[in-house]
## 1
Amino acid sequence: MTPLSDGQLWSLACEAYGDDLPVILRSLLSAYERRPGLNNPIRVHRSVIGVDGFTALREALVTQRSNGFHQLDGCLEIREPLVWHLVRHLQQKLIIDGHAPASIRDQRFAADLGL
C-alpha cells in the first residue's frame, strides 16, 4: 500500500481543509518539478481515498493540466515521484496546521529517517 492510498491521510485533509483542498493540491502540484526518466505509475482508487479526496485530487490535476496522470474508471494513475511529493507535503501541511494525529506524524518521521 502506498502512502497516497492511505484513507486516513485523505480523510483528515478533507475534514481539515474542505473546499480549500483542491487549491492546496494545486499549489503542491505547481511546486513539483519532474525529473527526467521513467517512473512507475501508482493507482489511486476513489474507494480508498474517498469521494471528496478523489474529487479534489482529480480537480487539481486537471486544473494544473498535469500530464503525469491518467484517469481510469474509479481511479487515477499517477507517477510515483508525484505521489511521493503530494503525500509528503500534504502530511507536512497537516502537521504544521495541527490536524495530524500521531500516526501521520510518525509516518512522516519514519520517511525522514528513510525507514
## 2
Amino acid sequence: MRRVFGVKKDKEPPPSINDASDRINQRGENVDQKIKNLDAELSRYKEQIKKTRPGPAQEAVKARAMRILKQKRMYEGQRDMLYNQTFNLDQVAFASEGIKDAQQTMTALKVANKELKGMMKTVKIQDIDNLQDEMMDMMDVSNEIQETLGRSYNVPDDIDEEDLMGELDALEADMGMEDEAGVPSYLQPDKEPDLDAELHLPAAPTGQAATPAGRANVQAEDEWGLPTVPRASIRD
C-alpha cells in the first residue's frame, strides 16, 4: 500500500516571527558586506582618477566607478527594504508578546477570582461577629475568675471606708501618746539627752580662786589630779 499511495509527509511548521526576523537580518548583513566591498572599489577608482590625466584612460576609470556606484545604490535600496521588513516584524513580535502577556494575566486573574470566591464562601461576616462576641464573653469570664481567686479570706466585703479611716486616725493618735509618755527623752528624736538630769548629779562648784592665806590648807595635786606627797615625808 505504501508503494502504491506513498507515505504522507509531515508538514513543516510555519516559520515564526523570530525565524523570519533572523533570516531577514542575515540577508541584511550580507548586503552590508557587499556595500562595504563596493565602497573599497570606489575609493580605489577615485585614487586612479586623481592620478590619471584627462583622456580615454581617465574616462574608462570613471565608467567603471559609475557602474560600481550604481550597484552600491541598488544594494543600499535593498538594505533599506530589509530594514523596513525587520522593523515591521519587530513591531508584530512586540504586539504578539503583549497579547500573550495579556492572556496570561487574564488566566491568572480568573484563577485568583475563582479561589477568592471559594474562600469567601467559607468566611462570613456573621460568623466573624459571633466569634468576636464569644471571645469577649470568654475574656469577661476569665477576669471574673481571676478576681475571685485573688479575693482575701480575712477581710470582709461590707467594711465602710470611712470607718477604716476613722480607726486609722485613732490608731495614729494612740501611737503619738505612747511616744510622748513612755519613750525616754534621750530616745526621742530631735532632742539631745540631758545626762546630768537623768543621773541626778550635783552641779560642779563654781567660786573664786583660793586666797594666799588659805593656800596652805589646799593640798597640791599632780597633773593627773592626785595629791602629791611632800618630800620631807619621803626622806623620813
## 3
Amino acid sequence: MKRILFFASLILLTASIAMTVPAALFNWRSATHDFGRIAQGKPVTAEYTFTNTGELPLVINSAKGSCGCTGVDYPKGAVLPGQTGKIKATFNAAALGAFNKTVLVESNAEGGSQTLYLKGEVVKEAASAQ
C-alpha cells in the first residue's frame, strides 16, 4: 500500500512540474489573411502580427511558403516575452484563379510548428481588383 501511495505521489508531482515548465508562446492577432480579388501580375503582401505571451524568448527557426510563389520574411532575432513581431508573406499573383497558400513557421514556441494561411482570387483586370 505504501508503494502505491509513493508511486501515485511521484506521478502527481511529475505532472505538476511538467505543467509549470516555462515556454515561449505565439499569440496571433490573426493566422489567416484573405486578399479578396487581386490583380494578376501584382505581388501582394500579408502581415501576421504576433505577441510572445510565454515566459521565454521566442526564436523562429524558419518560416517557409508552401510553394515558390510565396516569399516569407520573419524576425531573425529573439522576440522577448511581451514583445510583438511580424511575419510577412508575399504572394506572386501570376496565375489566374483562386489560391490557398500556407506558411509553415517553426520555432521554439509551445505546441511546435504553426501554420499561417493566405487566400484570395487572382483576376485579369486591375479595375476589378479591390
## 4
Amino acid sequence: MTTKATVTPHDAIFKQFLMHPETARDFLDIHLPAKLRAICDLNSIQLESGNFIEEDLRAYYSDILYSLKMQGNTVYIHVLIEHQSSPDKRMPYRLMRYAIAAMQHHLDAGYEQLPLVIPILFYQGPRSPLPYSMCWLDMFPDPQLAREIYSSDFPLVDITVMPDDEIMSHRRIAILELLQKHIRQRDLMLLLEQLVTLLRLEYTTDEQLRSLLHYMICSGHTEEPQLFYRELATKTPQGGSMMTLAEWFEQNGQQKGIQEGIQEGRQQGESAERVKIARRMLANGMERAVVAELTKLSAEEAEQLWR
C-alpha cells in the first residue's frame, strides 16, 4: 500500500475501475462472502465520499466506499474496499480504523445506530499468497484474550447501583467513588461519617485532597458548610485546608452554601480581610479559581493577591 504522494499505476487503475458503480457491483457479487452477499441489495449500491477519513489516514486510503441497502430493509451497509500492492501486516488494523471512521461519519449525519461496515482488501503484491492474517485481533500478543475483550460487553463500573458498604472497602478509590455516587443527591453532611472514616485511613494524598475539596465546593451542597468542613478538619489528620474553609464560612456568615456569596455593601475593612483569608486558602493548596469564587475577590483584590 502506498501514499497518495507516490501512487503506483496499480493503485491508480484499481481506483479508476472500482469507483464505477457497475464494476463495483460485479466485484461485490463475486467476492463478498456468501453470507454477506445474501443480505446485500447490490442494486442499491452508491459511491460515497471518503473525505471523513482522519487526516493522518488519508495518505494511506484508496477512497473507495460504497453504501447499499440490506435485502428487504431500509438499513444501509457500507463496504470499504482497499487496494494493496505490497504486503502490510498492519493492514487489518488500518481497515478497522477506516471502518470506525465510516461509522462515526454515519453518526455525525444524524443516525442513531451504527452501520455495518464491511472492509475488503484487494491484494496483488509480489509475495503470494498474502503472508499475514486478515484478522486484526491476531495482531495482539494474546489473540484469544483480545477476542474475549472485543467480542463481549466491556467492563462496567456503575457506581450508581453499588452499595455504600461495598464502596467503603475499595481502599484508595473509595472516597472518590462515594462522593461521585452521591454528589448530586445528598447533602454532604450525610456523608460526613463515611468521609471521615476514609480520610483517617490516610490513603488520600495532599494533591488528591485538594482536588476533592474543589470538587465538593463546586459540585456538592450542604446546608451547614461551616459545620461540615469544621467536622472534617477536626476529625481527620489532613484538616488544614478544611479548617480554613470552615473559618471562612464562619467569618462570612455563610450558613446556606457558597452560592449566596458575600453580601454587597461590606465595609472597606472587609476587603483586607477577604485578601487575608484568600492568602490562607492559597497557602493550604487551594486553587486560585476556587479561592476567588469563595471569597468573591474584586478584580483589584485578585490582582493584588496573585502578585
